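To: structure desk
From: M.T.
Subject: fold request, one chain
Message: Could you run this one when you get a chance? Sequence is below, nothing fancy, just the single chain.
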Amino acid sequence: MRTSASIAVSFAFLFLSAGCASMSAPGRKLAAANGLYEAGKYGGAAAAYRKIFQEASGPAAAEARFGLAATLAAGDNPQKNYAQALRAFEEFLKLHPGHPKARQARDWQQVLRALEQVNKSIDQLKRLDISHEEKRKKGE
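Reply: Done. Structure tokens follow.
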């Protein structure tokens, strides 16, 4: 005899299984790419996101574009590339301005642009420091 709890568990399992089975191919690929991202496998995630938005359209492509940009900007990604991340967020916003993650993408843009300015300022200071050091050595 089955209890009502076991019937409920069975129903929930069947419901969830049916949902997974009916997920579209781009949806499954996106879930896999997100899993790679969450596991810190950024190279694989970036490649998977690129493949999705090259092959798919609609919501999966938009999510993949955002995922790629976030992957390129991830602080613990050893191959992070803030310039590419900025371009990816710009492309995302150009193609999907009304997307629910558009505000988050604009926030990322601001942060990445500010970081770009900081890096430029650091480079200028380094050049100035080298120039002053060379002048000091000549004056000795």
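Reply (cont.): The chain has six helices and no strands. Let me know if you need anything else for the meeting.
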